[in-house]
Write a structure and sequence with these properties.
The complex is a heterodimer of chains A (327) and B (298).
Chain A (H helix, E strand, L loop, with lengths): L6 E2 H4 L12 E3 L2 E3 L3 E3 L21 E2 L7 E3 L7 E4 L2 E4 L5 E3 H12 L7 E4 L4 H11 L7 E5 L10 H4 L1 H14 L4 E5 L6 H10 L4 E4 L3 E4 L1 E2 L4 E2 L5 E5 L4 H14 L4 E4 L5 H10 L3 E4 L2 H4 L3 H15 L21
Parallel strand pairs in A: 1-3, 4-5, 4-19, 10-11, 11-12, 12-13, 13-18, 18-19
Antiparallel strand pairs in A: 2-3, 6-9, 7-8, 8-17, 14-17, 15-16
Helix pairs in contact in A: 3-5, 5-6, 6-7, 7-8
Chain B lengths: L15 E14 L2 E6 L2 H6 L5 E6 L9 E10 L5 E9 L3 H6 L7 E8 L10 E7 L6 H8 L19 E8 L9 H4 L6 E5 L6 E2 L2 H10 L8 E5 L2 H14 L3 E4 L15 E6 L2 E6 H4 L2 E3 L9
Helix pairs in contact in B: 5-6
């Protein structure tokens, strides 16, 4: 594997001087000004959020998944609300890599926040080829590999089998010099096995979790509600499940973890950090509280100050350390 | 005729997120209410046919915002827009909860969203509303008749000429029929009611009223149609307009999670050079020229 430069984006995108506590976090080769990112599939390609979010505040943007060629997506209805959550089966509706490069990368990389690309392929070669093309854009903060989408045929396969997870991560690492984050599915017996495999393949970090596979039924019609029958569950309803996954993976691997799953309040953020996440992604909350991500950055600074905490690393993974004084 | 005035795809440049208070709530029809919201900025920006998303300010169940169209703006004695009203029909968890909202209730809302109806530039606009679908047409009628302006861009009214407006309103029965006094108070506007069971007005579907109006050879025949209601009704109206060569715009309602283009839930089939593609109703619509849509039979 080639020797790779570190990506210190903390100076290019410095934290606003609203805090005395250090919010910078290290995700493998990637250094970010703060740990509040926004999750793929919940933030469009960032244009959609410009009216609601001060990009200069948040730690990073992960746009919607792109595939080598465009996909029309699944038939509607594509989402349905459930108790404190929602099911979606969008089906990776996107215009493909070429359009991403010509239309979205110029916008994303002009913003005052680090922007990733999130990619999905049907084969290892497709992941590697997309990574090669995106390697021409060093202004990207990194690649997040969607090896965990439950809503497309074959989409979840790389994330349910540790061997193929390791292979796909390694092939992307060899194809490009950008930091690589593997996004994991919780729809497995043992998520730590897949996390270890991603680490062995050279992932800079793992992000978890993608949605839990679920279903909604209209019993009067004797029919599924979603056009694609099954969907992925997200929102506050899955937070305890996601938190469990982060806690377990933090015990199992040494690479940084980005926690995802039902995070909508500052207490949620703190719980994931304590459980071992070095950063978090805000997902479904962007839909029902579009300005939430930037507000959470302010709230994070405030809560660390209130806790008399000078560095966020005192919080990260603290549940796994023996009790200490201070925060 | 008029152009569809949607902004750049994927942008909601004039939207913002606010917390606001419920000022009042009143009954419009059986299970249908109008809620008044104390949100001055949104009220001054929103256009007829645009929508916003609203949810309780706290709690996670219900979780997602729900989209509602502008019913009308509230103007004080000085002519300043101070609040707005939207209408809803009780059908599920959120609307059931909303029917218990009292003045002072805190709500979270974001908007204005979507493109809205274009300013009408013909001579006689026919608005066709099915059930709750009649409600966006109060603001449309006020604007088209030249009684009120919406939004804060004077450019919207360049070369504006008031036009005649007719409302064709279809509803299940007299018992379900809405109080149309807000429309009646405008005086000059024909209101054509039809009920499915014939308990009031014309018996049968509102589409028959539309067919008759479009078939007329009278010089006062409608030269444009705006339509909002159940999909089968809208697509029937679209076919009648296509056959009569009268331009028609539909206001679509598709299940939405965010309202601003991030979630890709609310897609509808839009014609393209090589067939059709799914497009987001929230940012490319919700108002579409009927002939731009790919639906059965067109």
């Amino acid at each position: 594997m080639p020797q790779l430069a570190s990506f210190d984006l903390s100076s290019r995108f410095s934290t606003l001087a609203t805090t005395t506590a250090k919010l910078e976090v290290q995700l493998g080769r990637l250094r970010l000004r703060n740990p509040i990112l926004v999750a793929s599939g919940t933030f469009g390609y960032a244009r959609e959020m410009a009216a609601f979010v001060d990009f200069a505040k948040i730690g990073g943007i992960i746009p919607k998944t792109i595939t080598p060629v465009g996909r029309i997506g699944n038939p509607p209805p594509r989402t349905v609300e459930t108790a404190s959550g929602m099911l979606n089966s969008i089906g990776l509706d996107n215009d493909g890599l070429d359009t991403f490069i010509t239309k979205h990368i110029p916008y994303l990389t002009s913003l005052a926040a680090p922007a990733f690309a999130n990619i999905a392929g049907r084969t290892i070669e497709e992941y590697a080829e997309m990574a090669r093309r995106l390697d021409e854009f060093p202004q990207l903060a990194g690649l997040e590999l969607n090896i965990s989408c439950p809503n497309v045929t074959g989409g979840v396969d790389f994330g349910t089998n540790p061997e193929s997870a390791e292979k796909v991560v390694r092939s992307v690492r060899e194809a490009c010099s950008l930091p690589v984050v593997a996004k994991l599915t919780p729809n497995v017996t043992d998520i730590t096995a897949v996390a270890k495999a991603a680490a062995a393949g050279g992932a800079d970090a793992v992000s978890l979790v993608n949605t839990f596979q679920g279903m909604a039924i209209n019993w009067r019609k004797r029919k599924p509600v979603l056009g694609n029958v099954l969907g992925g569950l997200s929102g506050p309803a899955i937070k305890p499940l996601a938190l469990r996954c982060v806690y377990q993976v933090a015990k199992a691997v040494d690479i940084p973890i980005i926690g995802i799953g039902g995070i909508s309040t500052i207490d949620d953020v703190m719980e994931f950090l304590v459980a071992g996440a070095s950063a978090v992604q805000i997902g479904t909350a962007n839909f029902y509280n579009p300005g939430v991500s930037a507000r959470l950055v302010d709230e994070l600074a405030a809560i660390l100050a209130a806790e008399d905490c000078s560095d966020i690393h005192e919080i990260i993974g603290s549940i796994h350390r023996p009790p200490a004084t201070g925060c | 005729m008029v152009a569809n005035t949607s902004g750049e795809c994927g942008m909601v440049p004039h939207a913002d997120q606010h917390q606001a208070r419920v000022l009042a709530q009143r009954v419009l029809a059986h299970g249908t209410y109008a809620v008044r919201i104390d949100a001055r900025e949104l009220s001054t920006n929103i256009l007829p046919g645009q929508f916003f998303m609203i949810r309780p300010a706290t709690g996670t169940d219900p979780l997602l915002g729900r989209p509602f169209a502008l019913y009308d703006t509230i103007v004080d004695d000085h002519g300043d827009v101070t609040a707005f009203e939207f209408a809803y029909h009780v059908i599920g968890k959120m609307t059931g909860l909303m029917s218990h909202w009292e003045p002072g209730e805190q709500v979270e809302l974001w908007g204005p969203l979507g493109n809205g109806f274009p300013v009408y530039t013909g001579k006689h606009l026919l608005c066709v509303g099915g059930g709750i679908g009649y409600t966006p047409f109060l603001a449309v009628a006020r604007e088209t008749l030249g009684l009120r302006k919406y939004g804060n861009k004077p450019s919207r009214y360049e070369n504006f000429q008031p036009a005649k407006v007719t409302l064709a309103y279809g509803v299940q029965s007299k018992r379900h029929r809405a109080d149309l006094s807000d429309f009646e108070s405008m005086g000059t506007m024909p209101l054509l009611i039809s009920t499915d069971d014939g308990s009031e007005g014309r018996a049968g579907f509102v589409t028959e009223t539309v067919r008759e109006l479009l078939d007329s050879s009278h010089e006062d025949r409608p030269d444009g149609v705006y339509c909002c209601g159940p999909e089968p009704m809208m697509y029937t109206v679209a076919r009648l307009c296509r056959d009569a060569r009268v331009p028609c715009w539909l206001s679509l309602e598709t299940p939405m999670a965010c309202g601003f283009g991030a979630c890709f839930s609310c897609v509808t089939r839009v014609k393209t050079d090589d067939g059709w593609d799914y497009r987001r109703t929230c940012i490319e619509g919700p108002i579409f020229p009927a002939d731009s849509l790919a639906y059965d039979g067109v």
